[in-house]
Design brief:
Layout (H helix, E strand, L loop, with lengths): L2 H13 L3 H20 L3 E6 L5 E4 L1 H7 L3 H4 L17 H5 L6 E10 L5 E13 L2 E10 L1 H23 L3 E5 L5 E4 L1 H7 L3 H6 L11 H13 L4 E9 L5 E12 L5 E10 L1 H59 L5 H32 L7 E3 L1 H11 L1 H7 L2 E2 L11 E3 L1 H17 L6 E8 L3 E8 L33 H11 L4 E5 L6 E8 L3
Parallel strand pairs: 12-14
Antiparallel strand pairs: 1-2, 1-5, 3-4, 4-5, 6-7, 6-10, 8-9, 9-10, 11-13, 14-15, 15-17, 16-17
Helix pairs in contact: 1-2, 10-11, 11-15, 12-14, 14-15
This protein binds adenosine-5'-diphosphate (ADP).
Amino acid sequence: MSVNRKFKSEKRGVLGGPHEKKVNLASFENTCRHVFRVVRDGILLVDAKTGSVEESNPSLLRMLGLAKKDLMKIKIWKIGFLDGPLSSQAAFGRLKRGSQSCYEHLRILSKRGRRLDVDLECAFFRAGDVDVVQFNIRDVTERLRLETALREREERYGKIFNNSFLGIAIISLDLRISQINRTFSRITGYGEDDMKRLTLTDIAHPSHLSAIGKILRAAKSRANGDYHLESRYVGKRGNVIWTNTHVSAVCGTDGKPAYLQVIIEDISERKEMEARLTERNLRNIEREKTIQKLKDEFIFIAAHELRTPVTAIGWAMDLLDDCRAKRGIQEPDVMEAMDILRENTKRLSNLVTELLEVSRIEYGTFRVVPVRTSIAAVIDRALESVGSMVGEKSVTVRDTVLPKAVSDVFADPMRVYEVLTNLLTNAIKFNHVGGSVTVRVREGRNELHVSVEDTGCGIGTEEIPKLFHRFYRIENDAVKDVPGTGLGLFIAKQVIERMGGRIWADSEGRGKGSTFTFSLPKAK
Ligand code: ADP
C-alpha cells in the first residue's frame, strides 16, 4: 500500500469526472507535490493503522539528518527522535480519527546528535480507504533560542532597572509615566500607582516646569537626542528635590522614538552645600568690599590730611636752605641733614600725590582731558625731568627712536607726561650703574606705541601679570632697597586705559632688562 497513491486516488474521487476536471486534478496534485517538497516544515505521513512511515518530505530529512530509506516503513514509535507524547505504540493508538493534536517545544535529536526543539502537529485524515496521520514538524530551535536570549536580557535589564542607584522612569510618547524603579519611588516618595496617574511635569517644581516640558518634547521628536538638565521636583511630602535629569528617546525597530527614558539623580545634598557655600562666599565678598571701602576712605583721608603738612614742610625746608645759603653755612653735617630732609620730603610728597590719585580713581573722580598732543614734545619734557636721576645713576639715555613722521595722539598731555616720567624713573631706578634706557615710538594703524626699554634687573615671567596691581612691588635682593610705593604702574594703567590705550610689560626674565609699552589712539 502506498499512502501517497491512496491519497492521490481519494483526491481524484473528489474532483473526478469530466476531462476538464481531470486536468484540474492533475494540476492540483502537482501543486500539492510541489508544496510537499519545498515547504520548510517537516512532513511525515504515517499509516494510522500500522503506524509505519509511508512518506517524508526533504525538509524533514534535512532536519533529522536522515536519508529517506532510514525512515520508510519504520514504525513511528520506534523512531528514537520522536520521544515524549508518541514514544509508545499505545500513545500513537490514542490519536483519534478526525482529531488534531499539537505538541509544543518537543526536544528531539537529529541523527548527528544535534538537539532540536520542534512543534509537532498531528492530523488524522482518510486517503481512499486508508487512515493517514500527518505529522507536521516545525523546527523552532532558533526561535526558542532568541526567546530565551530575549527573556534573559529582559531579566538582566529588569534587575539593573530595579537595583539602580539612579531613579528611572519609562515614559510613553503621550508623556504618561508607565513604569518607575524603586529608586525613583524612593527619591520622589511616589509609588508606581501614584506615578501612573501623573506626568513628569505634574511633579516638576514650578520654576522648572517649562524646562522639563521642553526637553521631554525635544527628546520625543528626535531619535538621537540626549538631554540633560539640573531640575527641581516636588516630592509627595511637598519636599523640594534637586536632581540631575537625563532624558533620552528609546527607538523601536522602525528607528523612531518608541518611549522616553528619564533618569534622575538626587543631588539635593550637593545643592544645599553649594547654596551654603555661595551664601558664605557672598557674605565674605560683602565683608571684603566693606573692608576695602574702609581702607579706601582711610587712604583718602590720610593722604588729604598729609598734603598740607607735607607742603608746609617742603616750603619751610626751602626757607631753611635759603637762610643756610645766605649765612654761608657749609658744614658737612648740616649739608647732609639738608639732603636727607630734601630727599624724604620729596618721597613723602610723591606718596601723598599718588595716594590721592588712587583715591580719585577709586571714587571715580579721576579725570583725563584728551586733546591733540605731540608725543615727541611730551617725551622731551619727560626726559628733561628725569635728567638729574640719569646723572646720579650714570645711565645712558639713548636717542629717542622716532619714525620719520610721527602722528599726534588724542590724549591728556599732562597725564601722558606723568606716565612716561614714571616709566623712565623706573627704567633708571631698576637699572645697573652704566646701563642704558631707550625710548622708542612705533606707528600702528590707528594707534601709536611708545616703549621705554632698559637694560636693568628685568622681571620674572610670573611677576609680569601682577605689576599693574595696587601696591605691588617685586621683593628680591636686587630691588628691595629701591624706594617706591608700588602705585605708579597701577595709576599708569588707569590713566592709559581711560584715554583708550593699553599698557603692558615685557621682559626676558631676571637680569635681562625690561620694556614697558603703552599705546594711545592717533588724533583724527
Ligand atoms: P614703584 O616703582 O614706586 O615701586 P611702580 O608701580 O612704578 O612702583 O612699579 C611697581 C614695581 O614694578 C616696582 O616696585 C618694581 O618691582 C617693578 N618694576 C617697575 N618697573 C620696572 C623696571 N623697569 N624694571 C624692573 N622692575 C620694574
